[in-house]
Design a protein that fits this description.
CATH superfamily: Ferritin, core subunit, four-helix bundle
Structural class: mainly alpha
Oligomer: single chain
CATH architecture: Up-down Bundle
Largest sheet: none
Number of domains: 1
CATH topology: Ferritin
Shape: globular
Strand content: under 5%
Distance between the termini: 49 Å
Order of helices and strands: HHHHHHH
Length: about 180
């Protein structure tokens, strides 16, 4: 088969996996969310202002770096399992459930943090689904990395919510609204 035929065959399988769904397909969403969120974090790090801007910029840059490590760890795990994963920009855009908005860089620090918190909560919805699907498929390593990522995301929500003077549950309650 030619490279184009192989890619076409892969896309057919990916589409089928998304309709089933499988743990690998759900983790395609997790990867896309991580990738897009890293860009949003960089945008926010550049946009923070005021007395707390240095602290927030460091926090956001650290969060960006940590999400990058989670992305690579999950990606490697999926590759090891022979899963097809999003690798192109248009796939990240298609599979992410995070919203981008260029005006975000002009928002207040409070609104930036609210957006980041909401994005982290959204990411936990996909890790939760990936955990359940990995359990069902008896992919214990994939289950574990999603569980660890999920717990890490919840901890990041706690940190961001603390900066906002709110608790973790408030972020999850806001997401339900």
């Amino acid at each position: 088969m030619t490279p184009q035929e192989k890619f076409t065959q892969e896309q057919v399988q990916v589409e089928q996996d998304h309709h089933t769904p499988t743990a690998g397909a759900m983790d395609g969403h997790v990867l896309a969310n991580l990738k897009i969120h890293q860009q949003k974090l960089l945008q926010a790090a550049n946009a923070v202002s005021g007395m707390e801007s240095l602290m927030l910029r460091r926090l956001l840059m650290d969060l960006t770096e940590q999400e990058g490590k989670w992305y690579l760890n999950l990606l490697q795990n999926l590759w090891d399992l022979g899963e097809s994963v999003p690798t192109m920009t248009n796939e990240f855009i298609e599979y992410t459930m995070l919203q981008e908005n260029g005006s975000l860089k002009y928002e207040t620090n409070e609104n930036l943090l609210a957006e980041i918190s909401a994005d982290l909560v959204t990411q936990t919805l996909f890790t939760s689904r990936a955990i359940k699907l990995a359990e069902k498929e008896d992919k214990l390593g994939l289950r574990q990395i999603n569980l660890d990522l999920h717990n890490w995301l919840v901890h990041q929500v706690k940190i961001i919510q603390g900066l906002r003077g709110k608790n973790v549950q408030a972020a999850f309650d806001e997401d339900e609204d």
